[in-house]
Amino acid sequence: MVIDLILKSLEIISKNQNPLGAYIACPDFDTYKYCWLRDGSFTAYAMDLYGQYESSQKFFHWVNKVILSQREKVIKIVEVVQGGEELINFDYMPARYNMDGQEEKDEWGNFQLDGYGTWLWALSQHISITGKNELLSKYRESISLTIDYLINLWGVPNFDCWEENGDKIHPATLACIYGGLNSISKYIEDPRINKTVEDIKEFVLKNCVLNGRLVKYVGSESIDSSLIWASVPFGMFNPDDSIMKNTIYEIEKRLVHNYGVHRYPEDTYYGGGEWLLLTGYLGWYYVETGQMEKAKECIMWIEKQADDKGEFVEQVLGHVNNGEYILKWINLWGEPAKPLLWSHAMYLVLKNKIIRDI
Question: How far apart are CA 282 and CA 237, in angstroms?
Fold first, then answer.
């Protein structure tokens, strides 16, 4: 029997949404039994594209409550940063939460700014798609707290989207913040937002470009596929901008294998395999630049990775950076995470973009 992967992906996401609204990263992988704001926001966006508005709004309502529960913490963080003092990892807003919205304190790098920018972006998309402008007043305080947090902390080193390099500043993270603030500025009048997005782009141009393309982090010469976000979907650079085209060229040259996309050249997590969700973003970039045949190759590659139940894994290990690390991670955490909701979400997003442009 042929599985309809669109319906299956919608089913998997719906089934694994907590009644309170949180999307679990992966239900069958103990290490991922949390909700990351970044992953969840992209998942909510995917659900919006398929008219699953009740699901996406439950997620936004959950995030709203989570941020409000951190109100005093945000206010203190902003005061401390404005005073020139330093904070430790647990003093910041976390990147991930338990399903009930409670903060999880462990040694895993948890200070990430990308998720808060991404939720502002996804909320803006939700309002644009559904026309539910009343959410702006309903979530007014949580939006304001997030804006204050990002405006004051965007230049502080923090962990990247892979929970690594916490002492660095990452252009992919800055793209998330840029995209979130820029998107919400269509609905919120705050002169600080326009100045901040201008400052972020100026910083990236000055500190994150080498040989005409973006780098993994400030001071690095490496490349990372999450840099696709600088254009798609967050719009810091036009897809046809020379910096973006050069960045994509470098990603294609060093990180793409038959449309499977690696995270970065030095990656050894499960050997550094090919991530389905990254192929989704690359395909989305191809759609935006009119390279439809390449976009279709991306979606077909993702579809080929579905197992006999129609589930998508986080990464496939047929082509890895360093095979010596595969068993190390399998022995530590088990097989790669499956089903990964973010993989299913990006399949849905790319499928929608291709169908829309046909």
Answer: 15
Determine whether 167 is an active site residue: no
* Residue 87, pLDDT score: 77
Number of domains, the chain: 1
Domain of 147, CATH number, reads 1.50.10.10
Set 48, 160, 224, 274: catalytic member? 160
Name which residue leads in pLDDT, 168 or 110: 168
CA angle 251, 252, 255 (to 5 degrees): 60
Q: Which of 91, 103, 148, 163 is catalytic?
A: 163
Our answer to whether residue 240 is catalytic in this structure is no
How many CB atoms neighbour CB 165 within 10 A?
17
Domain that holds residue 284: 5-357
Over the stretch 270-328, which tens digit does the pLDDT of each residue have? Answer: 999 999 999 999 999 999 999 999 999 999 999 999 999 999 999 999 999 999 999 99
For the chain, the average pLDDT equals 96
What pLDDT score does 358 carry? Answer: 57
Report pLDDT for 85. 83
pTM of the full predicted structure?
0.97
Rounded CA separation 84/167 (Å): 17
Annotated catalytic residue 189: no
- Among 48, 267, 274, 314, the active-site one is 314
